[in-house]
Protein 1
Amino acid sequence: MIATASGTRVATAREPRHVPGQPDMWFFVLFESLVFTSYFCVYLFNRARHETAFLQGQSHLILWLGVVDTIVLLTSSWAVACGVQHARAGRYQAARRDAILTAACGLVFLALKIVEWARLIHMGKTFTSSQFFQYYFFLTGIHCVHLLIGFIVLGVLVVQLSGEHRRSQVVVETCATYWHTVDFFWVLIFALLYVVR
Amino acid sequence: MTRRSWRSDPKRELWLAWYATVAFYSLYTVVFFVITRIQPPGKPWYSPVQVTEWFAGRHDGLLVGFALIFVLGGLSATALALITYSIRRMSVSRAFAYSYLILYAIAAVPGFLFICVAMTVGAMRPDRNPAVLRWLYDFGFLSFSGTMGVFLVGSLIWMTAILLDDNRVFPKWFGYLNLCNALTEVVVAPSWIFHGGVLAWNGTIAWWINVVVFGLYTGVFIFLLRQMILREDFGTGPLPDLGLGGPAGQVLAEAAS
Amino acid sequence: METTFNRRLFAVWLVLVGITLTYLWIDHAVGGGALPKTSSAVTVAAICLALVKVRIIMREFMEVRHAPRLLCHLTDLLVVVMAAALLGAYAAGRLVA
């Protein structure tokens, strides 16, 4: 057990267990995960019924680009997780830097997504052109909406880490929890759209 | 809790509003799902002939059901007023309450009344030109499902108010549930483009999954409004707990100790 | 202790990236690219690997490891429910195809 200058204690295996962030945010994580799971189930059910058509549509996606997207978001998750650790230990400058790095990764992901969408639309693959692309644009689109909300959440995080009077470890952890959700939704979407055969 | 006669109960009006809210949502469910059977929605790909048959099969139900709505639909105002009251009770600016009230009051016209009018007009003269009937059908369903922008913003306002509130009028998890509800409004947006499939106005994703989320959300906020009235102390500070606290938070907080 | 934690997070990141790169190997192994073919094995593997990553993200990055047992169980239950639902939906679709 380590006591830092600010008096906060770093959690170890022997420390009392605590809920990371607001328990309320965990309600959101679980609920929204179930909603996304229902979307994925609809996709998989329909995909299994029209395998050839979906496969054809999928062949226009670039797998390694999806891999890069995933690695970028995993890195952003790593950054915000480090940020939470730093904030807990009182190293707010480092935490703030991590939060900004998280946002930067998010922006890179967004840019890659826009490039990918532009490429597909240029090839004539649009929201309405085939069943596969209906799901593709819907799932990546709704994920992007969550990502954009994530930028607002990261903004709250940076503000929390910037002003001395505002620092609440609970809010910091809550914001991080939301961002990780954006990451793991993408992990699932990537597997379902790019890899599943 | 001491019993008071309803005459001197200061919460009398709040309870009236709450019971009116329950009555409204019950009426809405029974009229839309049972009497008129316009929910689940008709299929967007129907030809004019099929649409004529659709109206014919629901003729009496449409006229009776929507007559009830036109007479009693004003009860929806009490639901809106009670939610606005709950936002006023919060520590946030009154601007949140007024914005919510205005937005939802406006949204009720295209998002609720238009379909009632369109379907009644369609049922009124069964011998109308099938192409016109299909126009009314499209107009009704699209205005009901498709006018989501106002509801979206309204949900976000309520969410923001809850998350910023220091008076603990609602648990924070309900604020996040507002976000989930707001996102269903985004999910229904593609129904303007698709005539069939999972994203059409009757689709598995745009309707069925959305209705589950909306139904849960409505049930939850009716329950939480009741909790608010029970806890109301007519002050301006934090609402006292009933001794139960927010359900999810309480369970998790207890498990943490 | 701080350094240990940071090393742990880095290790977790490496594992997650490694699993992600495995997808490339799977795709190559089934001859991905020009003429992709349907494959239940790939589908099931892809879903399972994704869920493994989700659980790792939850336990390590989201710190569920240090959370009360109720939250640990809830998140594990979520992963199980997702697995059952996703694989079930896929199987059901193949049955009615």
Protein 2
Amino acid sequence: MDQVFQVFFNLAIIERVWPFLLAGLGMTALLSLLVVPLGLLGGLAVAVAHSRGYRRLNWLLIAYVDFFRAFPPLVLLVLIYFGVPFLGIDLPKFAAVGLAFFLNTSSYYGEIIRAGIESIPRGQMDAALSSGLRYRQAMLWVILPQALRNVLPDLIGNTVEVIKLTTIASVVALPELLNNARLAQSLTYNPSPIVLAAGIYLVILWPLVRLLSRLEHKSMALH
Amino acid sequence: MTPLERFLFSFFNGDVAARYWPDILQGFLLTTYLGLAVIAAGIPLGLLLASVRSFRWLPINALIVVFADVFRALPPLMVIIILFFAFPYVEISMSAFVATWIALTLVLAAFAEEIFWAGILSVPHGQLEAARALGLRRIQGLVFIVLPQAVRLAIPPLTNRVIAITKGTALGSVVALHEILNEASSAASNSGNATPMMMGAAAYLVLFVPFVLFGRWVETRFAWKR
């Protein structure tokens, strides 16, 4: 038992690699703060455009959403990161990761927000328009606040998924938490850095997962 | 070469495609096999855990909740890395396939448990009491009265979750599992050409687009009545 502890929770090694993992955590935070808002905005644009009900446009939007939901995000990232240079374009690592995440997360957020908008009865839009609001105002002040509230658990759930997904940036050696933990493990010949990184993800994401369970059970109880 | 010719040469090269399609096919079969193995193990495990949870034995429920929380909070890639790179330090080694399979199965089981549990909760408690009053045992009430309704409610969210997690088979490429992505990227670097990547991408679309469309259909078919 003591030996297992020495292997997986080696304090001397943890002390040594701690600053390195912290730098990785900073990169994970930076990446999340970039891709979550961008994905939300993209998803909002997709969902609002879809709500206008232009048939051809909607075909395109649904094709976009389904295409990127069918594509594993890691495959998308590898394709962009290793494929784009063949076009003669030099894409910085961070930009490649950002682009792959945008295409993936905007599809998921778009689908969620679309369901939210569709959960609001049509009469509300009609009433807002007939009381003199423009479409854009009605969407922004009447429909969206209710729509987003209706799908709040799904939005939080997807955000947790996106934060977990930032680990795939390690595949293109972007120095985020998992990448640095792997590097520290191979340099120290000890798995403690990986175990510590897992602990950090747990500490950050567990409260969100708990909150999510409570929100979901509450909404379920209303049915 | 004109830019268009160069583009076609790099991304849609017939010679390269002819040379590497058997590799991509191998990867396709392995991805399919792994995906099915994950589904076949993860969903029954999740259903079992949710059923056990419905008996409300406190210490066991606490364990189930911790399990479900941990594997919903940990990134799947992190779990694969722990199994594949950390466990060998205590003499527990496993192949890339087994590591990926265990990791994704545990993650799917955790999500499935939560989804089935939410479904079980949504069945009014009076139904189980009525079943008991009619002389059914608890387990019979669960299996014949509660679960059929709970599972029906669980199908749309479960479909989406299954798609998201089986796409995670691509994560196996990080531990050199020879699935589609791994075959495609090694073929691409061997040939110095992006065509195998496009073939890999196409293979994923062939595999998952029907799944996504099925999910869309299921969502309207089993839509929650609001």
Protein 3
Amino acid sequence: MMMSTELLLQKRRTARYVGKDLPRQDSLYKVLGSQEYVDDMKFDGLLYGKVLRSPLPHADVVNVDVSDAAKLPGVKAIITPFNVPTHRFTRHFTYVPWKEIRDRRLLDTRVRFVGDPVAAVAATDPHLAEEAISKIRVDYRELPAVLSADESLRRDAPLIHEEIEVGGQIKKLENNIPYSEVNEEGNSEQAYAESTKVYEDTFSTQALFNAPVEKRSIVASPTPDGGLEVWCSTQSIHGLRYCLSQALKVPLNKINVHDVLIGGGFGLKYNMAMHEPIAGYLALVAGRPVKITMTREEDFTNGGRRPVKMDLKVGVSKDGTIKAMEMDAVLQSGAYDDHIVGAVSCLGGWFFSMYRAKYRRYSGFSTYTNLPVYSAMRGFLNPQQNFAVESLMDDIAEDLGLDPLEFRVKNIPREGDFFYGQGFTVVTKIRSTGLEYLLREGAKRIGWHDRRHPIRSGSKIRAIGFAWGHHSSGTGGEMTKTPDRIESTGAIVKVNEDGTVNVVIGMVDHGGGTHEVYRKICADTLGVKLEDVRMRLGSTDFVPFDTGTHACRGSFVGGTGVMKAAQEAKELLLDEASQLLEEPSSDLDVRDGRIYSKVNPQKALSVAEAVMRAKTRGGGLIVALSRVRPGAAPPNFVACFAEVEVDRETGTVEVKRMVAGADVGTVVNPKDCVAQIHGGVAFGLGMSFLEETCYQGGRIANAGYLDYMVARAPDMPQVDAFFADTYEPTGPFGLKGIGESSTNPVASAVANAVSRAVGKRMKVLPLKPEMILSALEK
Amino acid sequence: MLVHLKVNGVDRSLDVPANEILLHTLRERLSLTGAKEGCSTGDCGACTVIIDGKAVNSCLVLTVEADGSEVLTIEGLAKDGKLHPLQQAFIDEHAVQCGYCIPGVIMTSTAYLMENPSPTKEEIERAIAGNICRCGGYKFMVDAISKVSKLSKGQ
């Protein structure tokens, strides 16, 4: 039943907790140091697993001699490519079996990147495990390696995979391109006929690393019936369960992935890492629990943001209307499927959703290389396309003599337009947008209109730049040609006989406050006090399936799951109270834990009383379980403005100030939403200047926090964050996502500011001082 | 080697290998897992503890080097069931997100406020520059630390 907008808004207005800053349930554990992460846990009889990794980017493993390692007392299991199953499996959490790629084995007789697992041991002590690894002798036959997308496209490039499986069928590869996609909409001829000018340019972005402070860690413990209990730093307990099940051939109901919070993920932990099934297999072989915790250096090989090269073509009419938009993109992948299908598809979907041109075309493909794999990373291909598009938009506006702000406002997507978030299979009608407000308000706050042009003072040049970005809220589009997607959740709401409530869900809270959203939604829906609602992540044995925390779906999809379960629990509660109060349940409501009659307010009883009576009389339990497949993936928007100061002598840049406005629908946790904006800015600044994964002969040359620079406290500029007042009708309490849109336009805004300051377009990220100096010289 | 430490007010005598780092002694032998191992190279600050009043990366200290010292970890900060003002301020200011860096940041700032009880925001930013928060919530931490420094001055 759809509620009218007025009723929905009233529901938001009368909410006691949604929209307010209140203490978070998880903070207490975290400030005490008592929040347990995987590596903090203690297990009886624990073995320590260690992986032997390839020193070569591409080689055949001819022989593995483990005889010396096996002699060490305390070594309980050693696995090599020659004593493990050889079937291929997926590492992908949103894996649709009949569409996607399988190219990974537990251990393979061919290694394809520096760091590729060759063998593994489990021993009683971590030092012993390391010693055992050092005693394994491997004979390699080195093969020519492909160390970039460009190299992999050469006619004579060696094949990295001669065959893979696609949709369960063997596919022989003749080149290093496992997946490509072309999408086109509208009439090209007509669009270009209406264009008075056509602009073309090429942009490229660097490899990055997610770098959560918690390194990946897993413990797998065998059960007597051949199953596994698993504790893992993962963004999806059910995704991991599925991938482990495929890799280890253990049925899903015998793998229980436990409820552990993670120390940051940012997309890195949204796949099964290569060492995770290895830990599981070692545990099955040794018959004891096995833990593998990454070193910081190893963790760098688990994922990151992939480099993309993008050729853009945009046709514009005289009055500044965008008529045609085209992108040809080359995405660099690592040595194995690293969300290849999703990455190629999403890049195009994000691109199509930037401006409402009547002709749009996207062509993208991904190449295998002999480099470590990439992963999802906050924004998932969106920041890359955003940098290309928003850079060119600035150039076009300046060339046409238009205010870049007005040029954008004229062409941005509007209510009723389609949004192609998460690729072309996820299409949603835009029902709420505060984007124009964000652009105009942000411009006002940064002072765009007075200071559009750079100001020189001595060796310094100051300039302002801006960009806007979007992201989907989840992946549940409504209008789609191919509906197959892994997008569902379910929550359990259990009302107790003292009036308190337990909520359980399979969605991990990365720390952004997702579980606080659930607590507030539950308390406001059910009519109980927030302090009476306890929120827990479940384990896969005990909670309904959930896809995992990605795609800005946490609050949007999980919140819907909690709201639906709370609504049902409330109905059960009112039915019970109706009998006790002898009032029709339609006349009853609940507030602050009291059930009362709206008609005869003196007739009331506590939630506790109703639950206890339900139990003692009919044995009726006030518990509800929801099953949710969202019917939309509405876009959330962020407009970002940056004021920078470029030093003409050193080529360095200081970001003096940022303004970032977000349209997230209803702001449920105000401070935590601002924190998401700060986090997005920190990631965006990294992408702008600080961060780049560098390779040397295929090896990551800066696999540590000393050489891979992430934003630290003094790097952060002053950030003025604000929100649009919108209501998303498909979202619980009108909310949309935020985690990724907050990152997507940041580097673009900074690059636009720097380009404006130096008077030349910066087309490559990161912006290095030498590039800026050379731009200044020209 | 036999080492004597006072950890969170309790005297401990431990027999540890000469090459064992303090972080591992705390985590593995004393089950004090609040200090985290984010990098093991002293670059992330997640393992910060206070030794004789100074904040240090416990991954860079050999346990034998700490012989005879007083070590304070995040677990020893709350007294008699009452949170340390910094712990309370971190909750109140929403400075806690994924939480992994939090013990390190709180220990760094505890030691810093002992040294400089009324820092400016810029000084606080520099003081916690050795602690990486990949969630990017630095502003909220600075607000929390600043609030405590003001409280202690009775402002």
